[in-house]
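Problem 12. The chain below contains 158 residues. Write out its predicted structure in token notation.
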Amino acid sequence: MAIDKPTPQHFALRFKQHKITILLFVKPHDPLTSVKEKLLAAIKDRNISQIDGQPLPSDPQDIVFGVPIDKNDPSQGWVGLDIPDLDDDERKKGGKKPGVLNATPIGAGLKDGSLLAFKFITEGSGGVDVDMNDNDFDVIMPTFDDEEGSQAKEGEEA
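Solution.
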């Protein structure tokens, strides 16, 4: 996949899973499905085959995004970002037209520097039947106490 050179119009989005943070530049009006493709390609480009023991999916659509419940305090948890996806039958029947709500970063209310959690849908988690609103995102946020603890341990050993 060709990587676009970032311009001032691109958003820098931070994607977190477990202790990993990935910074990815995306166009604000790109579909979130293409953002998933770029995220998976970026992970694979770094020769990462698994994150915290969970293997990478082969299909980018097996990635689920989450947004913080409180943008100022991500430690409060995450809510799944529902991305509408209508199949051809629904469109032919005159069903809902695909809207921009949640279909693009800007439509989902994301801004430059926004933080998103991600997880993988795997066979072990129920495959396609995974509840998109399952708020079980494995994100470990660093805290100031962690920094103090590591420095205190170093000081005690000396």
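Discussion. The helical segments are 32-45, 88-92, 144-157. Students who got a different answer should revisit the alignment rule from Section 12.3.
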